[in-house]
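Morning F.,

Quick status update on the modeling queue. The single chain you submitted on Monday has been processed. Sequence for confirmation:
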Amino acid sequence: MYTETNLRRWIEFAEIDNVRDLGGLPVEGGGTTRFGVVYRASTPQHLTEGDLSTLLGPLGLRTLIDLRNPDEVEREGYGLLADSAVRKVNLPVRKPTQTSLTPADLVPDAQHYDLVGLYRELLGGSAESVVTAARVITDPDQHSVVFHCAAGKDRTGLVAAVLLDAVGVPSEVIAADYALTGERLARIRARLDALPSYHGLPPVNTGILAVDPEVIRQFLAGLHATHGGGAAWLRTHGLSAAELTQLRQVLVEG
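Structure tokens below.
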């Protein structure tokens, strides 16, 4: 059944590689995450006219949350989305000490890379961005929402993990969602490696391009041990109790 749900969650595009609905995931205590509200994605900058029609039509895209850093946005842009009526909100996810990134920073080529440590650093440097993303999602007038980075794995995966944990999706399910990116990783790598911002990527499943569900399990375990979980982390960093309740209402049904 979960596999069937995953098939429904994938949204196929001609030139966007890694898009899936956050709906259909089980929630502790009952219910599932709601389809058609929030989507996670890789960079949409290469989208075709047909892709744009799908985003604006069936998906009803109103708001694009861009987790890339401003220098990435300046270099890579939005393609056909640039002139659309879609609201674009740049909420960079980055380490506490980073004001900008070089291509080398973005694509470390070590064969073994501490992704758990990276995600903790990124969360530590991005509280305002993650909380603002949650606030955008609480507003039905902004729906549907797509949030993305470059590959749709690391920064996107971090935000997805915090939001899903905050509304009660079990860590094993969140980890399984993270791992789904592995199904598209070769395609993602080929596209990104051709771009100036990301040239020099390591082979698939090595270094920064590893996709291991244990990474998200460990990240979430640390989030719970240190902060009490996604909901408590959001509250500590400024999300109100009413906003957290609204987040659950918009993301969970049943």
